[in-house]
Write a structure and sequence with these properties.
There is one protein chain. The chain has six helices and 17 strands. The longest helix has 16 residues, at about 55-70. The protein is of the alpha+beta class. β5 and β6 (about 155) form a beta hairpin. The two termini are about 15 Å apart. It has helices spanning about 55-70, 100-115, 130-135, 215-230, 245-250, 260-265; strands at about 40, 80-90, 115-125, 140-145, 150, 155, 160-165, 170-180, 185-195, 200-205, 235-240, 260, 275, 290-295, 295-300, 305-310, 325-335. It is globular and about 50 Å long.
Length: about 325
């Protein structure tokens, strides 16, 4: 679907507020005492979405298919392609003075990559306007609203999804569903699109952080995978914080139903590690250790994976690396 990118760069004369760091170290994330489920109706559907697995995905699929039938104009001889980008853009960085500039560079990289859907993690409230302005100028639209702890008080950090506005590709519904076991305000941001007569779900994820929360992370992955198995075409992508053994445990019951994009694209070494302290020095540990982990992953169902590459692997002299994470860019094909 991606067309040739023409980047619009916006000058920003306003004094930007930067995220307030809460004194965390690189392993400790902000937590909430409790969270509540937030429904975010998309433009094509205004009713609340049921939370039960039995009807939620089926109803969204029907709505998206109906929207696609009236709007999509596609070439039936060409395979339908979807390009999805995902990036933890490190909004909780202790280098607060660099956050705005790094977010700008992330937007430029995303536009150059010509992604159809952009799933961002660790977005902070003070930078939402900047992100939205930059991406809107390049044809992207934000899906849903910023989550709130209480009315008028946003979460300190969260996921956001944007999509490229283009013929035949429509947003039909948005829902944000908190994980019931999360103490870090983690959730599933589910966006349902219509593409060429097909309903597609893209789930933006940021699973529980830290090694000690392995059990919580696996339970969250189980919820995601059960949801993914309810749809014909689905993508779950983001900063999963998941270790290989945890992913293997979560995926085992869904063998044949859900695939890992990196594995499906040949398990190439150059695109394996997304949190790589050997190549990316944004974070330094006092003991000198340099872990290399595949925290950021893409799980999918119904598609053929055609390519996967990393974003933000080059260091800039003014900001260093854009984030401590490298981003993912995944090309998916709907089988004809």
């Amino acid at each position: 679907m991606a067309e040739e990118a023409s980047i619009v760069v916006i000058s920003d004369d306003e004094e930007e507020e930067h995220a307030v760091n809460d004194g965390r170290d690189t392993h400790t994330m902000p937590v909430a005492k409790k969270s509540k489920r937030v429904e975010e109706p998309g433009p094509a559907q205004s009713r609340p979405v049921p939370t039960t697995r039995s009807d939620t995905s089926q109803q969204r699929t029907k709505a998206a298919t109906a929207a696609a039938g009236s709007s999509a104009e596609t070439d039936s001889d060409s395979p339908m392609m979807l390009r999805v980008a995902s990036w933890n853009i490190n909004g909780l960085s202790e280098q607060e003075d660099l956050i705005g500039l790094r977010f700008r560079k992330a937007c430029i990289a995303i536009v150059k990559a010509k992604a159809d859907v952009v799933a961002l993690q660790e977005v902070v409230p003070s930078q939402v306007a900047l992100l939205s302005r930059l991406l809107l100028a390049n044809g992207y639209q934000k899906c849903g609203d910023v989550p709130e702890l209480i009315k008028g008080k946003p979460h300190p950090y969260f996921t956001l999804t944007f999509y490229k506005q283009q013929p035949g590709f429509k947003l039909s519904h948005v829902a944000r569903i908190p994980f019931p076991n999360s103490i870090m305000m983690r959730d599933m941001l589910i966006c349902t699109f219509s593409l060429g007569g097909e309903a597609i779900e893209v789930v933006n994820l940021h699973l529980e952080s830290e090694a000690r929360f392995s059990a919580s992370r696996i339970a969250q992955a189980d919820i995601v995978l059960e949801h993914l198995c309810d749809v014909e075409f689905g993508v779950a992508i983001g900063d999963l914080n998941i270790r290989d053994r945890e992913a293997a445990q979560a995926l085992r019951p869904h063998t044949g139903a859900v695939q890992d994009a990196w594995e499906a694209c040949g398990s190439k070494k150059e695109s394996k590690f997304t949190w790589d302290l050997v190549l990316n020095d944004t974070i330094k540990f006092g003991n000198g250790s340099k872990p290399r982990l595949r925290f950021d992953r893409c799980w999918f169902r119904g598609f053929n994976a055609k390519g996967l590459q990393l974003l933000g692997t080059e260091e800039s002299p003014d900001v260093g690396f854009i984030s401590d994470h490298f981003g993912l860019l995944v090309d998916l094909e709907i089988p004809s």
